[in-house]
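To whoever picks this up:

The nightly regression suite flagged Alpha/Beta hydrolase protein as changed. Nothing in the input moved, so I suspect the structure step. Input below, exactly as stored in the fixture:
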Amino acid sequence: MSQPMSLIHVDELPRSEEILQLKNDYIEGEPLKLFLQVEEHLTETLWWPSKNNDENLILFVIPGNPGVVDYYAEFLNTVHDELGKKIDIIGVSMLGHTHGPHNLSLKSLYSLQVQIDHKIQCIDKLKSRFTSQGDGKQPKFIICGHSIGAYIGSQVLKARPNHGIEMVYALYPTLQHIVKTPNGVLMNFLFNERPRSLAASFVSNLRHFIPPAFFKFIVSNLTWQKESMVNITISALLHGHVVENSLYMAGNEMETVCELDEELYREHLDKFIFYFSKYDKWAPLEHYEDMKRRFPEGKVLLCEDDTPHAFVLDHGEVIGKKVAGWIVNKNNII
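Regenerated output under the current build:
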């Protein structure tokens, strides 16, 4: 899998004939990394342009926390390939969750509500970009949200019910009482201001005082991630201000995501697929059972492969094929 390495600042996603002007070695169907201007925010974006998107169908991907879209490249490459590269796929990182020229402020902390508002702004921008200039044909959106991204996706639908959002795929969704989940109980102390600041300082000091090769050795042995994911963790995530933003948002999640918005999901039930896994400690089996009880007629699914909550690290291909299958069944893409 080739990694999308070109870093390009754009005000709008380019038209197909403009892509080669931005990246002269672009290979059709491969992802582009862009810094997309969304209102006041320079937004880290991965975009898989379509070869021939007759349906004008857009898969908009909202990551979990930490919201590093590069983690999702293998997963989304699989979706794109399985669909014959016939849809556009766009994923965006959470504000403040990745290191780079788009995230120069070391003081800005982005709340969950700011992240929600930003994703609403993203879909507004994408709707404008993908509305046909010729006949005014409107784009159709599928939102794919992972973990807290599923909650954010539901809030985007709530705010923009008439924006052509056809489906929301809620993968390993944290939709209620996160603070009471096994991982919420275990980790909630980290999200308070003092532990959060200590964690950020610790990471900053590690980067400053130890050689990069030894730092990578430590991260690799602590996380057990494969090398491609370790490289993303080191380059994008493990920076003091980024760690603090991720933990700050997590604290917001504990406070905000409490009672299930049953009215919202009931109103739009035909647009949701809820996908849980048996041993998930953030979206536990009890949440799956609760959703089945509340919405017996809904698409509330339990993973047959017992994949982990952080599926993108090792199971991106498996879930990518699953998601592609849902799109094919709904839209007859292939």
